Amino acid sequence: MTTAGNDGFAGGADGFAGGADARSRDANGTPGPRTRLARRVAVELFVTAAVGAVFGLLGPFGSFPIPLGERLIVWVLLILAGYFIFRPLGIVARWAATAARVPLFAAELGAALLAAVPMSFVVAASFRRLYGVLGGGNWFAELYPQVLLVGVLMRVLVFVLFERERVEADAPASAAPLPGAAPPVDAAPPLAATPPRSRFLDRLPPGLGRLRALEMEDHYVRAHGAAGSTLVLLRMRDAVAELGADGTQVHRSWWVAKDAVERVERDGRNLRLRLAGGLLVPVSRAQAAEVRAWAEAACRARAAG
């Protein structure tokens, strides 16, 4: 019984907002987002099944008298069923935490409390139908806390195995200042001397063209250039630090080069940046005002140059 959160979807919906990559592999042979997503889900299912096997060996919830082989099958299937109940609600919890600006912990706890309700019925119905156990009148009050505990423990396991490094990489995004956001709208940004070459640019393969944006995908960043895109095994936080003032992080999953912005677009309450080449980048609502000012100044500087 587990929830993996929407980070497991290789950046979530925002990762596909630009429509920049529907291929299974890059030009340099690096697996694309769909391939990595399939691998990630396969690993999660394997870990979930392994936990189910452990439960089968332990025989919790009064299931120990069941023969071992049968008990293993039942528990592996039950834990996999929990995966498909807890995971979608975990994805919704992360979306709600971002949209409503509530702590992620509170949103995920609420999702676990909700997911444990149908999962309790699944466990109870399974054992009652197969073995005639868990059929008492107070079964829900006894079973629900145990199911909730298992779900929370599985969530912690998934976080430790798959998401801890990504959350650490996300942490500085909201605290990092936006370079160039301070100048007033009517003032043209001052011309600066050409900065030294960024360390990050040395990581890119030749022929990628001028760097336009970075997109976070699991433990990688996808570098979008004028001539294509490629993956670099590096945390977004470290990539942004290496790039310095060449651009700004407009979303927890996106960094944009200041000379790549062509215009600012609005879709309802959402702000997006249209980059050279047509790439469309989402902007965090919490940073919308600052990013808009920065992007407009970058557009003016690009037009003047």
Automatic annotation (TrEMBL):
Coiled coil: none annotated. This is HTH LytTR-type domain-containing protein. It comes from the Bacteria. Keywords: Membrane, Transmembrane, Transmembrane helix. InterPro entries: LytTR_DNA-bd_dom. Residues 173-194 are annotated as: Disordered. Pfam families: LytTR (PF04397). GO terms for molecular function: DNA binding. The keyword Hydrolase does not apply. Residues 214-297 form the HTH LytTR-type domain. PROSITE patterns: HTH_LYTTR (PS50930). The chain crosses the membrane at residues 41-61, 73-97, 109-131, 143-162.
